[in-house]
Amino acid sequence: MKLLSYFRGETFARGIHPAAHKEMASRPIRRLSFAPRLVVPLSQHIGKPSKPLVRAGEEVVRGQPIAEADGWLSVPQHAPATGVVEAIELRPSARGPWMQSIVLRVHEGSGQEVLWRNPRDPDALAPAELVAAIRDTGMVGLGGAAFPSHAKLAVPKGATVQALVVNGCECEPYLTCDHRLMVERAADLIAGTRTAMRACGAPLAVIGVEDNKPDAAEAIRAVLPDDGSIAVEQVPTKYPQGSEKMLIIALFGVEVPSGALPISLGLVVNNVGTLVALGRLLPAGEGLIERVVTVAGAGVERPGNYLVPLGTPLAFVLECAGARGCVCELVLGGPMMGQAVASLDAPVTKGVSGVLVLRAEDLASGRRRVYPCIKCGECVESCPMGLNPSALGMLAARREYKRMASEFHLGDCFECGCCSYACPSGIPLVQSFRVAKQVLRERATA
Ligand code: SF4
Ligand code: SF4
Predict the structure, then answer these.
(1) CATH code of residue 173
(2) In percent, how much of the chain has pLDDT > 90?
(3) pLDDT-based confidence at 4, cuts 50/70/90?
(4) The three-state (H, E, C) secondary structure of 288-321, written as one string
């Protein structure tokens, strides 16, 4: 791949153009106050849960490590506020299952100052030391995947990284937290990008921003280093442009092979929110204790982008942002790939980029009857992976899950929801694909 002549201004085939609902992109980030109790799950990431370092009754200060990583694919957790550990017990998670969590009663006088720090000079650390320091921050992918950042930046033996791809697309409707971070914290983004480049050995970084965010691209260009090692490219606005495979097609014109990772092409992808946080946390020596969350939807009075302490119960977020009308459903993330919340007691965790608040009337008007497939091909026309969602849907209805995987490449479906969105018959295609994958996973481990 010839890196310096990579960008052709084109993008992936198919995809959709849902209504953006990004009005809040112009509103600055605001801080949320501390809830009386914060619930810090030991598993906020892909990988093994962290191991508690504290006991019930122990006093902790804001920023203090309260749980350590347990193995390579795990990260530590830090106290989001000063207070006392009330309990370490099972608490509801947003997806339903209860999870072992550290419950912190926040002291009334807890302020914003981070009282536990271990400042590092990223420029003085060797790549392996940088990876270890990144792990100490508890950083995970803040775009929603929550994959431990140190594991992503630790390049496998024998692999060479040609470029770091920085994902600033934020193609999901409603979500604007990454947009605001690019506008307000562009210098931190560049600092985090440089750190990530050094950690993974990338000589070049390309920040991909959808062309509906010209102010973000402009803010970043104003602080780019002079050495030409970091570039910003505006890519066409289209859903799901923010999926890493689609962004790589847009920037480099190459496809990540089926079943492979971007590293197979010498690429490592990170979300802008992750790198903004890294750019600030590492030199300051702080752990990840808060994140920016878009709170949006017709059911909220004061929508916006809030800096939320991790562990804040969703009920408290809703109370601060103001519920409007009869709120009957919360979705974590955006409307395309987000998941309905099982309990308002569940906390905001590292992977939560948005809280979409829906009223009963919104759901009633959005709910559709399901009709038989009319073989119109709209789903096939919309699938960015070139799959046949219609055939997959019919097999799912017959519970022929094995055939879905072996003959129709179910494993390549990344659940973007384009097919469900496009289907005039209202067939819940992506939902049935999720069920199929879950069943196959369970069968594989049985
Ligand atoms: S959900 Fe899967 S099958 Fe449907 S459009 Fe997206 S990638 Fe294709
Ligand atoms: S879009 Fe819906 S109705 Fe049309 S072919 Fe696909 S599944 Fe069938």
Answers:
(1) 3.40.50.11540
(2) 85
(3) very low
(4) CCEEEEEEECCCECCCEEEEEECCCEHHHHHHHH
